[in-house]
């Protein structure tokens, strides 16, 4: 099949892929292909359209710093506004011309002789690219639970990531499996419509009060006219999020009382919403705050006090054509099953596609045999001219934009230097990579992941070896500084 030649192939048309394309444009690269297996742009905000979806980080922080959106309707904007924002950014920066949808990348292989990446897509076409950028995200492989009998269910199954809005929930006898961030948003939304709702919880989640408010049109107009007014609000949400995550999670050793204070707020939140002691107890996490992504909701706990909503915690024995049988022998008859069962982060992701570097090094295999690792969360030895976004130790802060923009800075410094030297390939050195990994492991020693009680959290932040290598355990500020200052000698360039 035809082989096209590009400056860069970016895999993923979400905010990460679009940020990378904007950065490449700024560096003068214009021959770019952005490939995405979905049928439109926006990544997670295209795929997730379930009822009740809102961003769970203040929208002022959850957006590109260089492209503030004055028109968020709330502090925590609904999902469709995020999708519209993605479309706005794509149009403003003329990114659609690079995008190809319904295009599944199967393999990327470094061609040593040509000094290029060969990117194979389903259907047989191969693209050649000088740079390869993996922007597939951490949460892109939805998980269907392996529950006996699930395929025999005769009613309607709704997946959070494939919501069918034509299906009416009115009057249904529904069940939802999963009480992570998605479940916490879905439960109150479902309860508004269905006649009966049973919530199957395996592990309770920390739910914190949501300090949300609508942003009046007059304030939106002010933000549009005086961007610094919105920047001021952003500064406060940025600083609050960064300080909280840094001290409650990464500086757990020194600030354990702050973590306990956050947990106390969570307990109080539950206490104020639910009078039934037994119900409160069932909803109480028995692991430390910060082991698993905490959620924000003012409506989740009160939903369980409604007469048509039931919490089931004895575990699922099996699913039958007309209902769910619990481990205690009871059965709920249902016609609608909602799956909010999360994503596979460790088996079919990291990386989301097969990537073969120098000397046949297979990225997924190498990570699994040698620990998950990536220099500054973006580069891997033996993978020249490749930058990977959702990598080990890349995730910084709670807003995905923090990660994306830190990496844009890394690209700027790295590719800018490549151009200055008139070089065509870069590759991080083994020494730099080892030094960075050692530093991340040292920092993790102070974190809630190491010192807290996380064993019962079943958090997808941990892999099966009990390691938590997704996050860079530093503040966003420090991560950004590192991208501006990393020694250029950490890369070999030729
Ligand atoms: P998740 O946090 O991994 O939660 C999945 C839920 O499904 C858990 O409660 C899990 O129980 C349950 N589950 C999975 N398999 C099960 C089984 N076989 N039987 C019973 N229960 C099962 O996934 P998520 O809720 O989709 O959230 C993932 C991430 O997406 C979040 O951490 C967040 O980063 C992001 N997110 C963001 C937003 C937003 O910004 N609006 C919204 C949603 C999600 P266990 O805990 O016991 O495994």
Automatic annotation (TrEMBL):
Keywords: Monooxygenase, Oxidoreductase. SUPFAM superfamilies: FAD/NAD(P)-binding domain. GO terms for molecular function: monooxygenase activity. It holds the Pfam family Pyr_redox_3. This is Putative monooxygenase.
